[in-house]
Specification:
This protein is α/β, with parallel strands linked by helices. 19% of the residues lie in helices and 21% in strands.
Length: 436
């Protein structure tokens, strides 16, 4: 049996930008040659692309790290380094991508060929040709490339189906799927025969078609992890209509109405939005003794305990074995699908805002803390980016970085916090002395 994997945690790292170059023109008969160092190339993005040929996240079980190439370094004669190609990562339809750190949804990939950049490559560093000024016509300054974005992602695959079959184990969901579609799910007379979602296409006599997913059987406590737990409950989130299959013969000694309440309770406990989806009650195994009497009792209990102002769900008596009532059920399902819109899987609080890869003007440029060894520690996105893009092999670049820190107010802030002449200041792994 092929393995089905519907969750994965992976690391992605976009390519760094290429370093800019320090170079000078040295040509015969060309006096006073100026700067000639080119810019570095852009680092590659990590891009997810939907591939309808993939069915599971199995590929991510063995390969969890994805790293794009860095851009080329700048060259002499003012030539720019080549930008790196994007790293294309193919994912199946229905993949939801979350940031592992924040839990926010980055994107929901459902269309074949849909693309999304999950990590952006860094821009190339500028060569010294970019820093020439009338006051400094021959600068020995260049930038390192900007680091590429790095993040940990959670991938969830949610099966793309219009209709979901739910119900207790052994109520006949797999048998129903096998007779209304060309799918060949494993069928057995024991609980949890179905351990992976099965998908099939239905075509009605009137020409309507829709996708049906047979989901692994639920039991009481599934939303808290009992049985197969929440492992496959996520797959029902994309469905627009739920076919609630009930064993009306009560062949395992359970009350059909109690089964109905228990399954709905699990759906509601997992996600309140699932109760917004219209349900059709499928009274299965009507060819068995006592089924007619049990159906009559079921309808009486349902009517007695239902809100008098609410519309009772439709009930269709069927037998998967004898194919009794199937055509009527499928026509009603297609009709309900036509008037049921798609449901939003996530609200705004669960979605990450559109990615902005610059700096937040309102965010502080730097933060100051103190380590256990009394070293002052500087941090912050803007400051760390300047640090990473500074070429410390060049004295002019170091002096430029010092001026940038002073312009950001780092000196005054350290002095206000009590920093003294000779105190150590650390940025990442780099340490220097504070000079008052």
């Amino acid at each position: 049996m092929s393995m089905f994997l519907d969750t994965a945690k992976i690391q992605v790292k976009a390519g760094n930008g290429g370093d800019g170059m320090v170079a000078f023109r040295r040509e015969k008969y060309v006096p006073n040659g100026g700067p000639w160092g080119g810019d570095g190339g852009r680092g590659g993005n990590v891009v997810f692309v939907v591939d309808e040929g993939l069915r599971t996240l199995m590929d991510f079980r063995y390969n969890r790290h994805f790293k794009a190439q860095s851009g080329e370094k700048g060259m002499t004669k003012g030539m720019h380094g080549r930008g790196a190609e994007d790293l294309i990562v193919r994912v199946p339809q229905g993949t939801t991508v979350r940031d592992a750190e924040t839990g926010k949804v980055l994107t929901d990939l459902v269309e074949n060929g849909q693309e999304f950049i999950v990590a952006r490559g860094g821009r190339g560093g500028r060569g010294n040709i970019r820093f020439a000024t009338p006051k400094n016509p021959a600068p020995e300054i260049s930038e390192n490339g900007e680091p590429g974005q790095e993040r940990e992602l959670l991938l969830e695959l949610k099966v793309l189906a219009d209709v979901g079959l739910v119900g207790f184990p052994s109520v006949g969901k797999s048998t129903l799927l096998s007779v209304i579609t060309a799918a060949k799910p494993k069928i057995g007379a024991y609980h949890f025969t179905t351990i992976v979602p099965n998908l099939g296409m239905v075509r009605t006599h009137s020409g309507e078609s829709f996708a049906v997913a047979d989901l692994p059987g639920l039991i009481e406590g599934a939303s808290q992890g009992v049985g197969l737990g929440t492992q496959f409950l996520r797959h029902i989130e994309r469905t627009r209509v739920i076919l609630h299959v009930i064993d009306m013969s009560a062949s395992e000694g359970r009350d059909p109405y109690e089964d109905y309440l228990a399954i709905n309770k699990e759906l509601e406990s997992y996600n309140l939005r699932l109760m917004e989806r219209p349900q059709i009650i499928v009274a299965n195994k009507m060819d068995m003794p006592d089924s007619d009497e049990n159906l009559k009792i079921f309808k009486e209990k349902l009517a007695a305990n239902y809100d008098e102002f609410a519309e009772l769900p439709q009930i269709f008596p069927i037998s998967s074995l004898t194919k009794q009532g199937l055509a009527t059920l499928l026509d009603a399902t297609a009709e309900l699908l036509d008037k049921t819109p798609e449901f939003l899987l996530y609200d705004e609080s669960e979605m990450e805002e559109e990615a902005y890869y610059g700096f937040d003007e309102e965010a502080p440029a730097f933060e100051i803390s103190r380590d256990d060894d009394a070293t002052w520690v500087l941090s912050g996105d803007k400051l760390e980016k300047l640090f990473n893009m500074t070429n410390f092999d060049r004295d002019e670049a170091v002096m430029k970085f010092a001026r940038q820190l002073r312009g950001m107010g780092v000196d005054e802030a350290l002095r206000a916090r009590g920093a003294k002449d000779g105190d150590l200041v650390r940025i990442g792994k780099f340490e220097f002395e504070f000079v008052d």
